[in-house]
Amino acid sequence: MRIAMIGTGYVGLVSGACFADFGHQVTCIDKDVAKIAALQRGEIPIYEPGLNELVAGNMAAARLDFSTDLRDAVAQADAVFIAVGTPSRRGDGHADLSYVHAAAREIAENLKGFTVVITKSTVPVGTGDDVERIMRETNPAADVVVASNPEFLREGAAIRDFKHPDRIVVGTDDERGRKVIAEIYRPLYLNQAPVMYTGRRTAEMIKYAANAFLATKITFINEIADLAERTGADVQDVARGIGLDNRIGGKFLHAGPGFGGSCFPKDTRALVKTAQDHDVPLRIVEAVLAVNDNRKRAMARKVAAALGGQLRGKTIGVLGLTFKPNTDDMREAPSIPLITALQDLGAHVQAYDPVGMAQARLELPAITYCDNPYSCAAKADALVIVTEWEQFRALDLARLKAEMTRPVIVDLRNIYRPDEMAEHGFIYDSVGRPSS
Fold this sequence. Notes:
six-stranded parallel beta sheet
């Protein structure tokens, strides 16, 4: 089938490349001329394992191309996906739908024949109705079905998630639309990926509810971690003990410095705003947002406590800047408020991240960037592990200690064992476990 993907951000680029790998003919479209030129040269603007090879292979096979010209791609398409950004709207936390609405108008102007327009961007409930209204006002003669098909991709594992999904949610009551989308995803039949057909508004709600629930699990275990520290319990054993209950499950029960990234903070805020618009309080989700925001800066106080409460004039090394491993995404990363708070307390911060430092420099220009974990530890009074990159899981601890001014490690991801750190002579503090 011929597919036009509007937007070459994280969702659009990964989805477009994977659809092309299924054998479809895909054109990814973006208004950013420089970005499209770079993609045409094979330069990928985001870090995602395996994406470079996937894009290159499908470009070579002439199944995937990139363009700034929406007109021809939409006119020839059987399906058009809207995968533009929906950032938090400045000032009020609602999802900014201006890019979605603009895409809907431009798509409608260029439709030829029967076409299914599918919203893959994360959007509030009712957005599909707005998209359909805009398209019919723009082009009353268009033969179009508007559907919802939310994405459930984890950064760092997006290609696997796309090709081996837990579920595919399709929001449309139109039988013609269902048949087109079923044909698009037909290559996943052998993987036995469950396809769930719902109403359009239900599909939109599923995406927001899923992200809010996962954010709630993270925040819950973080609060239990705080209690575990005060009572002498071990939050990792607590998480395992409750996660073995199949009604709860073990995923997203890893205590840490709080959630970040492009989805959870923005989507939970947008869900709260949607609920307020409908006079339905979501007290749990509101509390999740408040607790998470406070937690990120509170981690600086944890670092200060490990150094006797005083950070002024101290040098703090920070390992990991991106919000999670295997991505260069700095959006809402816990490292940003943590480092800002460390600086407010008078510390000098030096940092290292395997792939995220170019993006980090845009957010955190006033820190020292290092070449590797050991130069990050050099002359540091404390070393803070913020992102659980695999490269940090087996560091040469003797070398690390020799580089530091004081052997203090604050492990916000619990990637080391307290007994191991004690054997190497470190003062070691982690999250939700007894400190040394």
